[in-house]
Amino acid sequence: xxxxxxxxxxxxxxxxxxxxxxxxxxxxxxxxxxxxxxxxxxxxxxxxxxxxxxxxxxxxxxxxxxxxxxxxxxxxxxxxxxxxxxxxxxxxxxxxxxxxxxxxxxxxxxxxxxxxxxxxxxxxxxxxxxxxxxxxxxxxxxxxxxxxxxxxxxxxxxxxxxxxxxxxxxxxxxxxxxxxxxxxxxxxxxxxxxxx
Length: 196
Description:
The protein is mainly alpha-helical. The protein has one domain (about 5-190). The chain has nine helices and no strands. It has helices at about 5-10, 25-35, 35-45, 55-60, 65-85, 110-120, 125-140, 150-165, 170-190. It starts with a helix and ends with a helix.
């Protein structure tokens, strides 16, 4: 595995609470200047979605991709099961499975925190719990990887979480809600008016 001391040492440290960070797109531009084509491809394949589009021998043996996809599949399956139970629906068709058809299943802390997140009255607070769980898992993936391509893969995944978090803006959400509410109220009022 190649070492990328300079590329990683020039990047700012990341924390889940920060508002200012390089965009994932900018990060990929930086990587294009420093990484081998193989390592750049692995960074590109490191996405928040556990789908294995473009799976080949190279990325199915990559430790970060395998462990991340398994973890995220477990997390999403736990959410699907909990939501299915609430809606009294069979979730087996929605569960993600491995190559042999066995559904990924979260254990211990994963299942417990997913239950906590799904139980939150606010989707925003639930998302914060899930993202903290994801961030902690990514920190675990960094163990033993400081200046290599796997560290860059984890960095890219963290940037994607931060970018997603930036869409959860309370003020913008409140304005959008008020706009939708007023539009709906106007339509209901118009429908209640007698037709001539």
